[in-house]
Specification:
The chain is mainly alpha-helical. The protein has eleven helices and no strands.
């Protein structure tokens, strides 16, 4: 039964990806892209990687879909979509890539352990109990630090293109119908609770800062789309501080570690350090993702909100 379900997911992924290439209408392309992200999240779940599945569903399908929809709304053109013609070179390149991936998958040794044993041996020195969190915060802290930097650079780039210094006053008008506001009042406390739970869970099981951040970002996007005034009460200075908090926490750790350790980003086995970085990264990820939505090209702020 599991094999049938896995084959179904694989076939759906291939079919949806081919459809994305062939479809002409932009709206259908975005819907298919969101569908592809959801199927990909199911595939990661079947591969027993719930961390990546949550991130794919929230970012790959959810927030990216909102960004694409928002951008599509800003592109108003009367031109008819051009007829899609797949270049022959692209077809040959795709076939060659499929053959190469299939050849690699067939020749993967069944007893391949990679660095899992080395990571397992280093777990006691990390001060963490869950291996994935230890890898993200300790063993490859440089990657996590730079990923937070990429998010921060993306927000800065979008603001530069939009010729804005902050997002103060960028509040959408509230919808006339009360159903959306009523649903938000019910869902918002649960999303905040789930975000906090995922952050706490990261020390022992799949979860952590990124998963908690994307859930909180989803709550922020709901408030933004509903025009809720609470999303605009954050002063600009605090918005900048929280935006940079994750990257700055790693930077402070990198500088301080030079005084008590031989290598950068070597944190002491203190829960306070680990929790501080996790909290800062969670808030920073949530603020960055919400800011990307607020600063997207399709956003039309309510001009009555003062800057």
């Amino acid at each position: 039964m599991n094999l049938i379900f896995d084959l179904f997911i694989a076939i759906c992924l291939i079919a949806v990806s081919v459809r994305i290439i062939l479809v002409r209408e932009h709206f259908q392309t975005i819907v298919l892209f969101i569908t592809f992200g959801l199927f990909l999240a199911l595939a990661w779940t079947r591969l027993q990687s719930p961390d990546i599945a949550i991130a794919e569903a929230a970012v790959g399908a959810g927030l990216t879909g909102v960004l694409l929809m928002d951008s599509l709304g800003a592109i108003k053109t009367s031109r008819k979509p051009a007829r899609n013609r797949i270049p022959l070179k692209l077809v040959f390149l795709t076939i060659a890539l499929i053959i190469a991936l299939s050849y690699s998958a067939v020749h993967i040794p069944y007893d391949f352990s990679g660095l899992s044993q080395a990571a397992h041996d280093a777990m006691p020195a990390s001060g963490l109990e869950y291996p994935v969190t230890a890898v993200l915060l300790d063993f490859r802290g440089y990657d996590t630090w730079l990923e937070l930097g990429v998010l921060l650079a993306a927000v800065t780039g979008v603001l530069a293109l939009r010729r804005r210094t902050n997002l103060t006053g960028s509040l959408l008008p509230a919808p006339a119908e009360p159903v959306g506001r009523w649903i938000i009042k019910i869902l918002l406390p649960f999303m905040v609770l789930i975000g906090g739970y995922l952050l706490w869970l990261g020390a022992y099981a799949p979860g952590g800062a990124f998963q908690a951040g994307v859930v909180l970002a989803g709550a922020g996007v709901m408030l933004w789309q509903a025009g809720h005034p609470s999303i605009a009460v954050l002063p600009g200075i605090w918005w900048r501080i929280l935006l940079c908090s994750g990257f700055s926490a790693f930077l402070i750790l990198a500088v301080l570690s030079l005084f008590y350790a031989d290598q950068m980003l070597t944190h002491p086995q203190s829960k306070a350090w680990i929790l501080g970085i996790e909290y800062a990264a969670t808030i920073s990820i949530a603020i960055c993702l919400v800011s990307l939505i607020q600063a997207s090209p399709g956003s039309k702020p309510d001009s009555t909100i003062p800057n």
